[in-house]
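User: Sequence recovery, please. Input:
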């Protein structure tokens, strides 16, 4: 795949990623390591919680989102390097069997005033379930290089 530079990131352009099916085992394993709460760990006990059943940690959903971005069309020349986030929302629980996909829409791209050769690109990243409903949205800025001048190496 072609590496993208700041000049390639036109507002409105959307980059898609592959899909990923969440399994109960994966949800429980992630939670056991990073977010050990009963509604992420035990399907039976989770029935009596806010979620009414086993649900993935939001941080697990965020991690899967990152994996889908890295595996998808958003191939930035330096890689996906975070420069900060403005918003992270979880809209509905992710359950075992949910098939997640991601798209990243360019909101803006601007060269840096203080760091020649690079800039910042702002994206709206939406993670959706198989029905196309958003489970997570993220507004984030990424560090992206400008295209090198002809004759110069990356």
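Assistant: Recovered sequence (154 residues):
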């Amino acid at each position: 795949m072609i590496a993208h530079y700041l000049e390639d990131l036109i507002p409105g352009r959307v980059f898609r990623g592959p899909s990923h099916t969440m399994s109960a085992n994966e949800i429980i394993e992630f939670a056991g390591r990073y977010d050990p709460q009963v509604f992420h760990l035990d399907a039976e006990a989770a029935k009596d919680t806010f979620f009414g059943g086993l649900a993935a940690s939001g941080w697990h959903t965020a991690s899967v989102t990152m994996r889908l971005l890295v595996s998808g069309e958003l191939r930035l020349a330096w890689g996906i390097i975070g420069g900060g986030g403005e918003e992270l929302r979880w809209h509905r629980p992710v359950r075992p069997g949910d098939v997640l996909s991601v798209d990243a829409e360019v909101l803006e791209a601007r060269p840096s005033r203080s760091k020649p050769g690079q800039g910042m690109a702002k994206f709206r990243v939406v993670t959706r379930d198989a029905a196309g409903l958003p489970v997570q949205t993220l507004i984030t800025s990424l560090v992206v290089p400008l295209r090198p001048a002809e004759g110069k190496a990356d």
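The chain has a mean pLDDT of 95.
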